[in-house]
Structures are given as C-alpha cells and as structure tokens.
Amino acid sequence: MATQHSRSAARIMMAPAVILLLGWMLIPLTMTLVFSFKKYLPLRGGDLGWTGFDNYVRFVSSSAFWPSVQTTLIIVGGVLLITIFFGVLLSMLLDQPMWGQGIVRILVIAPFFVMPTVSALVWKNMFMDPVNGLFAHLWKAFGAQPIEWLSDLSLFSIILIVSWQWLPFATLILLTAIQSLDSEQLEAAEMDGAPPLSRFAFIVLPHLSRAITIVVLIQTIFLLAIFAEIFVTTSGAFGTRTLTYLIFQRVLESQNVGLGSAGGVYAIILANIVAIFLMRIVGKNLDT
Amino acid sequence: MYLKNALRAVTALTLITTTSAFAETITIATVNNGDMIRMQGLTEDFTAKTGHTVEWVTLEENVLRQRVTQDIAAKGGQFDVLTIGMYETPIWAANEWLVSLDDLPAEYDKDDILPAMRAGLSHSGSLYAAPFYGESSMIMYRTDLMEKAGVTMPDAPTWSDVEAAAKAMTDKDNEIYGICLRGKAGWGENMAFITTVANSFGARWFDENWKPQLDTPEWKDAVSFYNNLLTSYGPPGASTNGFNENLALFQQGKCGMWIDATVAASFVTNPNDSTVADKVGFALAPNKEGVDKRSNWLWAWALAIPAGTQKEAAAKQFIEWATSKEYIELVASKEGWANVPPGARTSLYENPEYQKVPFAKMTLESINAANPDSPTVKPVPYVGIQYVAIPEWAGIGTAAGQEFSAMVAGQQTVDEALAKAQANTAEEMEAAGY
C-alpha cells in the first residue's frame, strides 16, 4: 500500500530518469525545429539568420520530394508484404517436427544478426554483381543474359535485401504465435472435415493476426528510416532515393542544415501519419 | 640498494617532467587509405624525434569529410591536424578555418612541392595544406590484349585511339571488356570522371557569370561519347561501378583499359593482388582531336591545421614530419620505393631509385598536365578540374551523377540526363544566391 509519503519519494527518485529521457528526445527535436527555420549553411559562414518557412517550401517543391516519399512507401510496403507472407510460411514450416530443427531455426534467424551494411555489401558484390555475382553465373549457366539487378531492378533489389534481413524477425514472432495455437482446435476442425486451406484461413490466420500486427508496427518504424542498404548499393541513384536518403543528401552532401532539418520535420510528420493510419487499421487487433 | 632505487626513481621522474613540459598529444583525423595506415605505423619515428605523441582518428573518406566539416564549422576543436582534400582546402581557407602554412622552416623546402599541388592547396597565394600524396588520372591498359588485338597505344592518345583500342580488345564472350570506367553515382565517383571528359571536349560547368552550361553542344558531345564508350565496350552493370569495383575487375583481368587515378597503378602492378601485374602499360589521359586539354584530373590528400587549435606548434611539427623528404625516405627504407606516397614532391621524381618504378614517369607527366586554375579551354570562374570548388558542388555533383548513372543503365537518354542535371544545377545555384 503506497502512502502519500512513499509516492512523493518515488516521484523524486524517478525525476532524474524522466528528465534525462525528456532531454534526450526534446533537445534534438527542438534543435531540428529551430534549424528548420534558419538559413544554416556550415560552409558559407554558418548561421545566416531566420528565413521563416522558406526551407519547408523549398523542400516540398523540390522535384525530388514526391518521388522520394513514393519510394519510401514502396520499399516499406514491399518489405512488409514479403516478410509477412514468407514469415507465415516459414513459421508454419518450422513448427513441424523435423530432424535438426534447432539448427534449421538458427539458420533461418541468422540474417538478423548480420549488420545492414555488411549484408548490403555481400548482396551487392557476391550475389547481384552482373559479372562476378552468383546470380550472374546462374543466369549464364542457363544461357540467359545476366540481370543488372541494382540498376535495372533497383527498387526490387533493395526490397529483396531488406526483406532477407527482416524475414527472421517476422518468422520468429510468428513462430511463437503459432506455437501458442491450441492444437485441439485444429484437430477438432479436421475431424469436422474442414480442408487444410480453410483450417489455415479460419483458425491459423485469425490466431496470427495479433502477431502480424506487431510485426507490421515494429517493422514499419524501422523501415521508414532505412538507409545503409541504399547508401551501400545504389547511393540513391536509379529512383531509390527515400525520404531519409534525401535528407542525408541535403544536410551532409549539400551542407544545408536548414533545408535538411525541414525535411526531418516532414519525415516526423510522415512517420506519425503512417503510425496513426496503422494503429487505426490494424491496432484494433491489439485490444482484443 | 634502497638509495639506488630511490635515485633511479628520481631520475625517471625528472625525465618525465622535463619532456612532458614540451611534449604534447595531438589528435589527427585521417582517411583509411593505405598510405595513411602506413603513416600511423611509423608514428614512433615522429614521437622519437619530437617527444609529441599522436592519437589517430581513422575514418572512411565520406565519414571523415562529414566529421571534420561538422567539427570545424561548429568550432568543436576535436582535432589538431586534419586530413583534407584539394576540394575543401580553398573553401575552408576562404572561411578562415585553416592556419596558413607559409611559415614552415626553410629546411622543409616548400618550393619542392609540385607546382600543380601548391596551386590546388593554396588560397590567395598562401599554402593552407601540405600534400601528403597527390594523384592525377591516366590510362592503364593491358599490353598483352593490345598486342593480341593488333593495336598500339601512343603515350599521348586521343579519344579516337581509346575508342578504337576498346573496340579491338572487347571480347564479351570471354568476359573481356574493352574499357572500364566509373559509372557509380557520386560527385567523387562518376562525376569526377565525366567532368574530366567534358573538360577534354571543351565543355565547362559554369560560364564567367556562374550560369550552368550543361545545355551546350560540348557537354552533349562529351556525355554521348562517354555513354557510348561505356555501354558498348564496358562491363555489364557499369552504372554501379566506382573506383573499387573497377580496380577489382582490372585486377581480375577483365578490363582492357581503365582510366582512373594514378595511385591505382601501384595496385594493378602489385603481383600479390593483381593477376595482370606484369602486363600493364600506362598512357596519358586522352584529349579530343583539336582540343588542347587532356582529361586528367588532380587530387591531393593533404594535412592542414584547423584555426583555433591549442597545439598549433606541435601540429605544424607533425605536418613537417609527415610531408617531408625524410618521411619519404623512411617509407622507402622500410617498404620499398613503389610504396612511398607519390605525387607531392619534385625531388621524389628526380630520385634515380624512384625513376625505376614503372608508373613514376607517367604519374608526374599527368600531374604536370593538370592546372586547377584553368581546367578547360574556355575561362571559368572556379578552381578545380574534376570538381568545382564551391560548397554547393557536392550536392550538385551528386544529383547530376545520379542522372548520368541512370543514363548509363539505359533508363534515360543523354538529352534527358543533361536537361535534368542542368535544371537541378540552376535551381541549386539560384538557391545559393549566385
């Protein structure tokens, strides 16, 4: 039973952590907001004064803005589709009793432990390289012309690389969900004569919906900020410039802190729109 | 016994205090290139000579550029010596971010620094960074493939010679590609090369009033030629190849020719890494018939001191040590002449030992053929050969690089790429207040 006294003591003891965490978030956020209203060019003498909404207008009216939003959404959507589809498949497969299950599970999870930069380099140089890559050799073995993955199918290639990395995460969460499925329910349905597809659609999938929601939410948060894979493979060329990458180019390549900060604020807004949208549509599942 | 030990301790203490009164610890930011890694290994020599100790912050090129730019722009004071390129030096010097190196002692022999390097690292007549190593670009070609194809490479070829040789050597069925060139987007990747091609076709980035010139016929000729050369005789996926990718292809024997940085010469002729080490010839970067500028660039990694450092004297001593003639001899004595930092000092090229290195002569000729003050035929308002030394260049160059990369990949025509690059450049320049 907490007394008035112990409650205020708890508040005092928690205060440093709360203040630290608030500062941790608020200081960078405030700085981004302040810079976004300034003409701040480090290589041209630094802070050149306030400019009002100029940076915001310039960022949105630049020809690169809408394509970059579109690219971001395509990548996020593509990766989500692939990881959830194959995640469900793999998790059901891994749930089956089989020989060497432990090893297979570790192998499936392995990509998650590889750093994004490393995995992007490995994919770029070992698989997708049109001269030395594994795919090029495969294609040639069948007498076909190797595909120039990163330039001809650039967006698909990046979705593929990122999906490979996030599939283990989806699989892992979905596998735990599947393991918690009551097998008696499935057996009862089977005895009632429900075919496998119906059993999947009416029992397994609804049971997984909560896990899928978690996968969608968590992955979306990380995928909106995807950067390393693009930096390593295409450097934003061939229509793979996401919003994050555009901001990076504005701040660090063009050395325009004000413009980049305005882009950062847009990114926060976009992330929030996507998050609210997701919460509305799929978040309902979390309540049940 | 006790007395002896006490005496020893006192002597040691005195030694430590007296040396530490003069000795300082300087922090140096540098790039993770082979020559710089070697320099770190030799730091003991510097410490032995001066008593100063050194802390290294070694970073990848792009990261280094961002870190030191942020540090110096925000006056962070993290570093006492910076490794910067020829692009940054005049811009930073103009902002008064760097300490002038004009007062280095006479025995340092500043006049020994190659004139092209001094020009590129100076601002209004004062030297602001000392070249650690310098480079130009040149043609590296396979002598065996040229012989097999029955063509010869003159020492000073034209673009027609290069195209003919590329055509003759290309054998796509056996994965031999006539020419490997940069196609990967980036101001320091494909744009470095494309800008030099443009120079050799008489094109320029800006006219005297800073108006972008990418809509001129010279640019169209240059970019069309580059695009045709690379798509007809280049390796597949050339639009994603940068320096490292092309180096690997050349070392594997898949390129007939490669036009790139002179420092690559020591990598392609190193038998440990290269399968074609003994079959490489060198020639000057080409020009177009009738145009009096070659397509070679000029670059230096140089050491500079940020204004406001507390340890300016020690930092100067370090720069003196690392870019001196003695340092070159030190490396030569430990690692051989082929591994000394090239392209910085005239005396190196007068050294008979160094003249035996196969690429020494062509490197010097290439460097001497470059003039950052006058990169192309027509007058320009900027300094720089494969870049334009203004702060906006990195953004402009990279955006244009992406258009040309998409062009090489076959996703847009030469005209479309040039029109987009022109529009974006005009937009950026207007925003920057030109």
Summarize the structure.
The complex is a heterodimer of chains A (288) and B (434). Chain A is mainly α and 288 residues long.
Q: Over all CA atoms, what is the radius of gyration of chain A?
A: 24 Å
Number of strands of chain A: 2
Helix/strand/pairing category of chain B:
alpha/beta
> Largest sheet of chain A, order of strands side by side?
1-2
> Oligomer, anyone?
heterodimer
**Number of distinct helices of chain A:** 14
How would you sum up the major sheet of chain A? Answer: 2 strands, antiparallel
Strand content of chain B: 5-15%
> Biggest interface and which pair forms it?
A-B, 37 and 43 residues
Low-pLDDT ranges of chain A: none
Elements of chain A, N to C (H/E): HEEHHHHHHHHHHHHH
Number of helices, where a helix is a run of at least 4 consecutive DSSP H or I residues of chain B: 19
Terminus-to-terminus distance of chain B: 79 Å
SSE string of chain B, helix = H, strand = E?
HEHHEHEHHEEEHHEHHHEHEEHHHHHHH
